[in-house]
Amino acid sequence: MKVLKNCFFCMKTVFRYAPWNVFFSLICFLIPTFFTGLQVLLVQRIVDSAIGYAKGSVPVEQVVLWGILFVTMLTLWVSLQRIGLYEMAVTSTKLTEKMAPEIADRLTQLEYASFEEQATQEIFQKMSEEPETTIYNCYVNIVMAVQTMIALIFSMAVIFAISTWIGLGVVIIGVPMLVLGYYTAGRQVAVTEELADTRRRMDDLKGMLTNKHAMYEMKLFGAEELFTGKWNYYSTKQAEISMRENRKVTLADMGSRILNVVYLVFVVSAVAVGLLQGNLTLGQFTGALNGVSGIEGKLNMCSRQLAGMLNYALQIDFYVKFMHLETRSDLGRKTTLDHYDIAFENVSFRYPGTERKILKNVTFYVKEGESIAFVGENGAGKSTLIKLLCGLYEPDTGNVTVGGIPVRELSPKLRTQVLSAVFQDFQEYQMTLRENVAIGNLEALADDKKLLGALAHADGSVLCEQENGLERNLGKLSEDGIDLSKGQWQRVAMARAFVSDAKYLILDEPTASLDPVAESHMYENFARIFKERGIIMISHRLASAKMADRILVLDGGRIIQTGSHEELMEVQGLYRTMYLTQSAFYREKDTEYTIG
Amino acid sequence: MKKKFCYMGYIFRDCHKAFPAFYAINFMMYALSITVGVMGPLLLAHILELAAGTEGNYGSGLGKAIMLYGVCIGVPPVIGVVLRSCYHAAEVRGKKYFGNQLFAFSRKIRLEALENPEVLDKFYGADKGGTAQFQFMDRLIQVTQSVVLCIGTIIVVGRYSSILIFTGLIELVPDIFTKLYFEKRWADFRRTQRIANRRCSYFLKLFTRKESIKELRVMGAEQYMKEKWVGENIRKLRGLRDVNLDICKKQVYGIVVINACYAFNIGLAFYLMVQGEISIGAFAACLSAFTMLHSSLGSVVANFAEVVQKYYVIEEYYDYFTIPTEENGTEMYQPFQDKILAEDVHFSYNGSDREALAGLNLEIKKGEHVVIVGENGSGKTTFSKILTGAYLPSKGHVTYDGHRTEELNRKSLYDHISMVQQDFVHYHFTLQENIGIGNLKRMKDTEAMKELLCQVAGEELIEKTGGLDVQLGREFGGQELSGGEWQKVAIARGLWKDSDIIILDEPTSALDPLVEYDILSKFVEMIRGKTSIIISHRVGICRTADRIIVMKDGRMVECGRHEELLQAGGEYAHIWQEQAKWYV
Fold first, then answer.
1. What is the rounded average pLDDT of the residues A16-20?
2. CA-to-CA distance for A535 and A547, rounded, in angstroms?
3. Which of A404, B151, B423, B521 is 20 to 30 A distant from A64 in Cα terms?
4. Are the Cβ atoms of A209 and B106 closer than 8 angstroms?
């Protein structure tokens, strides 16, 4: 049922993208379906009339007429097929051309939660394997299977006309042959599924082979044997399962071929008897033999095409699923705000589909222009808090508001005017330096002064002093691209923050891979430049939290301490413990603080 | 031209190794099928002649001929079964054989080569190519079979009239050339498409990964990025469409020629029959022979095109094997007693004109705890790779007690070094294997491993995963760890190996302060007795170091103990001040 539904979906999709080409190709493929049967008829006529002519009972014109008809049919046949293929090719390009933007659109419309879910990640993984090709292949297979089936039915009718028995025979062997073919296809799909995990593991191992860090570890630790062992294990497993399946498929194949041979023997003897008894003309005899040996191929092809159709129809499942993913609900329309105070009120949250509450009844307020820092151990809920603030998730209970309006009701544009962010896992865009910086504020894309200024603030002026300046390609994607070190990329990411005019800047552990000097420069710069604007910061390095007006200490999804650095240092608590531990490296041994 | 076919020998050899019976089975089956194919029209002519000649009074000769003809029709399906299962078996074996060959070779590639994105491209090219060998062989055999069959048919027809040989042959010519040309064009086109493809899949990745989506949405840059992606896609497709449509159009011309030849042949045979040059039976045989010729020619051309296409794919497979492999020294490494010395070491990465190391000189004594500090890009990590012998200096030497790394057997050297990389690897294996990779021989020593893991990560990690033999990585149905937890596992892996030397490259970057402090202070205990080299941004740990090496622009600028360097007031003092001022 799913197969039929997917086939229908596939046809609908191709029709939507290239209606005329699909229409023409269908015509071009469906007309020739009658030609196989026609060929049998015409060969029979040619032979009969030629023999008749040789005996003097048929005029030469008639032979020539059949001959011309035959050749015309063949020419038309091939030409139509060619035109059909051409239309198919056009369909394929149109499909790719129009589907890509639509997929892109769709992706931008998805709820953010989808991107963190494992199930959707698998769909995305498949989306990267050219969904348009799969759809196109499915379409081709549908057309071909239908074409072969019609041709089959028509040639069967012709054979029925020659001899009922032979025709009946085709039906009798045809059904089991198709069933066996369908079984084979089903097995193939089942095996692909059975092998999915093995293949994923092999891909993972292959990924390591091309990962310089993994290769380095593998060599240094002398762990080649482990990897090779694993690889061999999985490749042998894959081969064994495939072989086991092959045996089944071969048996099925053999069954259908035996049916076929039995039938052929029957046909040859039947027509021979007919010929000997004078019930059949020589023309009919030749025609029947030709037609029957053709049908064998057709039946085989038909079951193979049905198998292909089934296979592809199941494959496009991921695309169907993709098109039905939940769309985002955070595209609010609010375009102006009276003020920019942030409020979290009784916010609780757990990730969709999980049990654990990440945030428990969190309440806090941030005044416009205030800078605050979140401090806490791994897993305390800091990053989740930021995601809620950015409107990526809806809280389970409570409200996240900016200027009194729930953050998901702000228009995307307004939201970028309120918030800008540098995340720990910031992106290294494989584009020009100009674009990399301007991502922070696309209105400044052509504003060289602003971009250079932002780079300077981020200690990254060096980056644009080289050839091509802002236009140089970063990353390894372009041939002339230059890959930056992690620290240099970080400066680029920082520059993005400086180029933005947003009211608040979110810093989610952005300095983890900076060297010490650069890190302290960065903090000084932040403190200086964002004096007027608010900063919301997460950091492991407590030193940087010191510059915030207020520090919020998170533990287990709750805010357990609030206050300035000085205030928090005066009470025994998590903050004090953490700070003392970290600064221990830098203080002389006989310190006045004691940990605890 | 020479390069073009230089891999043919490899293909034949490898296919033989992967599935020895392949050639024999194919040869027998195809010989049989050719015989049957040529016999068919002959028998038919014979039958028709007998039938037409005897006017209803058929002899036993006819019955025999018809039976033979039945065999001729019945044999091909049987051949089909054998060939198909043979081909499937070959595919499965080939996949395994070529996959293993690829895997085995990849292990040996020089690490530096992996810095080059082309190598990645080549790998994926080769990965695709590795499944094409048997397809290539199969199509090649089919082409040969079809050609032989065509020639056989032409000869049969030629027995009736020699003109028919000539006209039959003409049909062969036109399409082959166009097909050849197009295959070449496709292959060239695909090569140029690589970059465009890479760019497109890069964009797709940006739009499907949570990290990038999060950033793009918050920054409001989704729309911009989407337009770039769509633009890239359209550019890529325009090329594709041009080639594709051009080929389709031109193929139609080839078809017209073939059909004209076909019609001409039939007409000629008819004319010859009317003229009385050939019999009615011969005419019917000619008709069936021409039909067969016509369809075999189609398959010759189609298969030949595929042969060429597959060859281009296979080329990528064998091209991969020309990537330089790791050179190895012959001298066995003996644990060093005195010191490691770097003398005027230079190194630059492929494709970069900047030297990552520019004349580095330094000395590490046995048992010392050395900390290397320096700005990003000052060459710290590169130096650590030179030290282990994974990279060889382009100029200068690193010596262990006077033995140069390039002359040492690399494996014997590796055996004595352990490390924790900055970009440590998340192995999607079990927890036990993740740690055990450090020393496979002790993999089964679960008690010791648990103890080590508790030291590094506390009880919680084992409690969370629920044991050592738990699969890690969510994609493989296992437990997912946080960044900090993965790092702890990597540290445990580094410590699991018994080694004289341990290199720790930013070992605590993903940990929170409490844990960082905890681990760093334990390190001192755990690496006692080893020579250790710690690369770190956190100058805080320098105080306990025997020696601090400050690097800048690929050179060592300062060297000494914490107090000495602070007093000297140079680069180190500057870095220290910058960092310490935030804490005091």
1. 89
2. 10
3. B151
4. yes
CB A591 within 8 A of CB A584: yes
Three-class secondary structure of residue A343 per DSSP? strand
Residue A424: Cβ within 10 Å count: 20
Q: Where are the beta strands (DSSP E) in A379-529?
A: 397-402, 405-406, 419-422, 504-508
For B336-387, how does the pLDDT look when each residue is reduced to its tens digit (9 = 90+)? 888 899 999 999 887 677 788 998 898 999 888 899 988 777 888 899 999 9
Q: Which domains does chain A have, with CATH numbers?
A: 2-323 (1.20.1560.10), 369-394+408-583 (3.40.50.300)
Alpha carbon distance A558, B257 (integer Å): 81
The minimal CB distance from A221 to the residues B119, B437, B482 is found for B437
Mean pLDDT in chain B? Answer: 82
Question: In the prediction, which pLDDT does B56 show?
Answer: 52
Domain edges within chain B: 3-320, 428-498
B505-534 exposure pattern, b = at least 16 Cβ within 10 A, e = fewer = bbbbbbbbbbbbbbbbeebeebbeebbbbb
Interface of B with A in 443-462 (CB under 8 A): none
Average pLDDT of span B522-532: 82
What pLDDT digit, counting tens, does each position of B381-392 carry? 899 999 988 888
Record: contact B111-A216, CB cut-off 8 A: yes
Cβ distance of A519 and B274 shorter than 8 Å: no
Q: How many C-beta neighbours within 10 Å does residue B454 have?
A: 14
A56 in Cβ contact with A175 (< 8 Å): no
CB B561 within 8 A of CB B546: yes
- Rounded distance, CA A209 to CA B107, Å? 7
pLDDT at B55 over 60: no
Strand pairing report for A371-376 and A359-366: unpaired
Using a CB-CB cut-off of 8 Å, the residues of chain B touching A421 are 215, 218-219
Specify the long-range contacts of residues B237-243, CB closer than 8 Å, at least 24 apart.
Answer: B237/A93, B237/A96, B237/A97, B237/A100, B239/B189, B239/B192, B239/B193, B239/B196, B240/A93, B240/A96, B240/B189, B240/B193, B241/A93, B241/A97, B243/B185, B243/B186, B243/B189
Tokens found for residue B512:
């929170």
Looking at the domain B3-320, which fold is it? ABC transporter transmembrane region fold (1.20.1560)
Sequence letter at residue A106 = R
For range B57-71, the mean pLDDT: 73
Q: How confident is the model at residue B222 (pLDDT cuts 50, 70, 90)?
A: confident
Model confidence at B57: pLDDT above 60: no
Please state whether beta strands A550-555 and A558-563 pair in parallel, antiparallel, or not at all (unpaired): antiparallel
Asked if B39 contacts B156 with a C-beta cutoff of 8 angstroms, the reply is no
What average pLDDT does this structure show over B103-128? Answer: 83
pLDDT recorded at residue B1: 37
Give the pLDDT of residue A596.
Answer: 33
Taking alpha carbons only, the member of B108, B102, B106, B104 closest to residue B128 is B102
Q: Is B217 on the interface with A (CB under 8 A)?
A: yes
Range with the lowest mean pLDDT among A2-11, B63-72, B358-367, B553-562? B63-72
Given a cut of 70, whether residue A589 has pLDDT beyond it is no
Which residue of B72, B419, B512, B553 is the best one to mutate when testing the A interface, meaning the one whose CB has the most A CBs within 10 A? B512
Q: How sure is the predictor about B2, in pLDDT bands with cuts at 50, 70 and 90?
A: very low
Burial B295-312 (b: 16+ CB within 10 A, else e): ebbebbbbbbbbbbbbbb
> Is B81 close to A578, i.e. CB distance below 8 A?
no
CB-based contact A422:A346 (threshold 8 Å): no
Nearest residue to A224 (alpha-carbon basis) of B247, B67, B440, B405: B440
Residues 320-349 of B with CB under 8 A from A: none
Per-residue model confidence (pLDDT) at position A592: 40
Q: Which residue of B has its CA nearest to A477?
A: B199
Say what the ipTM of the complex is.
Answer: 0.82
